[in-house]
Amino acid sequence: MRTSVVFLIAGLLCVSGYWATDRIEDGRLWNEDHRISEPPAPPRAPRGIDASKSADHGIRFVDAAADLGMDFTFYDGADGNFHLMETTGGGMAVLDFDADGYQDIFFVNGSRLLVVPADRRHVSKLYRNFGESGLEDVTKLAGVELVAFGQGATSGDYDNDGFPDLFVACFGRCVLYHNNGDGSFSETCEIAAVDSAHLHTSAAFSDLDRNGTLDLYVCTYAAVSLENPRVCERGGKRMHCLPSVYPAVPDLLFQNQGDGTFRESGRTAGIRDENGRGLGVAIANFNDDDEPDIFVANDTSENFLFVNKRGFHFEESALNLGVALTGAGSTMSGMGVACGDYDLNGRLDLMVTNFYQERSVLYQNMGSSGFIDSADAAGIGVASRDRLGFGTVFLDANLDGFPDLFVANGHISDMTHVGIPYKMRQQFLLNDGGKTFRDTSDSTGPYFHQRLLGRGVAVADIDNDGRPDLVVSHILDPAALLLNRTPEHGHWLGLQLVGTQSNRDATNAKVRVRLNGQERAYELIAGGGYLSSSDKRLLIGLGQTATIDDVVVHWPSGKEQKLGPLTTDRYYRLLEPIDTKTEDTP
Ligand SMILES: [Ca+2]
Ligand SMILES: [Ca+2]
Ligand SMILES: [Ca+2]
Ligand SMILES: [Ca+2]
Q: Measuring CA to CA, which residue among 152, 528, 540 is closest to residue 339?
């Protein structure tokens, strides 16, 4: 046992036995030496809305990409040979790479399929967020101009130096960028070489052995031959084949060795994956212990839930726990994964998108009895049947406390000649009191009337006003930056957790919030969305409640920290208490 003593940290504010900084807006940054721009303006005061009136939703999103200086378009490399990876699209990682309190955005791009390094027309892009003065393309300056057939991106501070690093999953070789802390990144060679014919998709960082460093899960979809492309036909027209014609490839699990290197050890860790075409991943505590588990959405075969048995060992339990198949008992075309507690029962649920006319699945977490598919009961079935869904995320857009859903849609093949829609409308699904979702896309903003090939999506509070915004990548159409302009919304609390003994990102930390005598549970999940990673600050919608009785943070190290009461409508940065050097004596 260790004796836990809280240290005083210069510059941080001590309030009744816990440590919290002033809000990020006050510019109290983790490392003042690296502050580059002025801190953001304070957020506008919310009026507070009644959760029971969420039917009068009034939710608005405005695509501000062009106005703010963002001009990224994902290129699919289509060359007439109908390669599989022309259909999967790309994602993005949201990260505050310069630690100035504003979330920045890294977009993954495709390329010509036979990659020509000198062809720099289609490269990944990094946008630095300057707040009200908009975004600036700093790709070259930051050294992340990647020419590769990219798919997914995820961010995590794998070496705990305070600066978020970046992993890019590609067709073939993947790339790990180390953040140098001076605005630039260096490509590291510390991720094991991967097969050049394998299509890697979503990835997520989480400290799976809870030793304080982030490990990395990488979904691998299939082996794809560029030399012998598979082409199928429908209605007399050549088109992409269904994924089942491509050989599945096991996903990869990299264990952080603590010295800046990783070792792939999926097989020995129990990642039994012979027939999974992994597209989406979410890592969270699904079963009430403190160990993060791994959910993988597979295309055309059973999903996986790798339950963490400690010691970097996992047991695949999807069938037992009810998340392998749809409620009707069939496999699905699992694409994106949203992870959140939509019914506020304190347990994390999973929304998984699916193929056209196959409806998405909403796995409701019932605790020890596992999950049930509540898509039809919750209105998700009807809303998703005539769409082909990819990225999906939970976000509480009106901050009433109930997580709403965004879904990116678009078909993989142009089959308009047989009456099947190709480009599709994206969807906003309003959570009505934790029971059902309602498609309110018609009145949520002009973006939701466009037809697009939606793919990767991430949630981030881009303007730090407490209202969660969205970043969406589309194939061959400009990416959207959907600022949340919902006029009437609830109060909110933002927490940026900084681990000291835990991983620095505090990934998979759990937070309990008590308000009006009621307790709610949250977790900083890893992964989710599709090919993307979101804002790592925990943003909690509070409805009409303007003060919080207390907050208990359960850090991944096992430490508990209590705060409160707290005033709302602001971000707090919270540092994990540091133990003294008192160690066990033998
Ligand atoms: Ca930033
Ligand atoms: Ca780092
Ligand atoms: Ca809501
Ligand atoms: Ca916002």
A: 528
Which ligand gives the minimal distance to the CA of 430? 3
Quick: pLDDT tens for 384-429: 999 999 999 999 999 999 999 999 999 999 999 999 999 999 999 9
Instruction: List the shell of residues around ion ligand 3, using CB closer than 5 Å.
Output: 396, 398, 400, 402, 404, 431
Mean pLDDT of 16-21: 32
Query: 0.70 exceeded by the pTM?
Result: yes
Give percent of the chain with pLDDT exceeding 90.
Answer: 80
Q: How far is the CA of 396 from the centre of ligand 3 (A)?
A: 4
In the 8-state DSSP scheme, what is residue 32?
A: G
**Nearest to residue 491, comparing CAs of 365, 400, 392, 368?**
400
Across the chain, mean pLDDT equals: 89
What ligand is nearest to the CA atom of residue 135? 1
Side chain identity, residue 395: L
Residue 39, pLDDT above cutoff 70: no
- Cα(181) to centroid of ligand 2, in Å? 8
Helix (H, G, I), strand (E, B) or coil at 204: strand
The residue among 162 and 116 whose pLDDT is bigger is 162
**Other C-beta atoms lying within 10 Å of the C-beta of residue 447:** 20
Calculate the alpha carbon distances from 283 to 199, 202, 274 in Å. 21, 12, 20
Could you give the 3-state DSSP secondary structure of residue 369?
Answer: helix
Which residues are within 8 A (CB) of 268 and not within 5 positions of it... i.e. 6 or more apart? none
User: What confidence score (pLDDT) does residue 288 get?
Assistant: 82
Which one of the ligands is nearest to 96 CA?
1
Unique residue bearing structure tokens 């991967």 = 194
Dist. CA 285–CA 292, nearest whole Å: 5
Distance 466 CA to ligand 4 centre (A): 5
> What's the start-to-end Cα distance of the chain, in Å?
11
Ligand nearest the Cα atom of residue 37: 1
Using pLDDT thresholds of 50, 70 and 90, give the confidence band for residue 32: very low
| pLDDT single digits (tens) 314-371 | 999 999 999 999 999 999 999 999 999 999 999 999 999 999 999 999 999 999 999 9
| pLDDT in the model for residue 24 | 38
* Distance from residue 350's CA to the centre of ligand 4 (Å): 24
Cα 265 to ligand 1 centroid, rounded to whole Å: 33
Taking the centre of ligand 4 as the mean of its atom positions, its distance from the CA of residue 465, in whole angstroms, is 5
Do residues 383 and 428 touch, judged by C-beta distance below 8 A? Answer: no
Three-state secondary structure along 52-98?
Answer: HHCCCCCCCEEECHHHHCCCCEECCCCCCCCCHHHCCCCCEEEECCC
Q: What does DSSP say about strands 570-575 and 491-498: parallel, antiparallel, or unpaired?
A: parallel
- How far, in Å, from the CA of 97 to the mean position of ligand 2? 9
- CA pair distance 55, 74, nearest whole angstrom: 36
Query: Closest Cα partner for 220 from 187, 254, 188?
Result: 254
C-beta atoms surrounding 584 within 10 Å: 6
DSSP state of 310: S
Ligand nearest to the CA of 188: 2
Tell me how far the alpha carbon of residue 537 lies from the centroid of ligand 4, in angstroms. 12
**Cα of 95 from ligand 3 centre, angstroms:** 24
pLDDT at 75: 96
Distance 470 CA to ligand 4 centre (A): 9
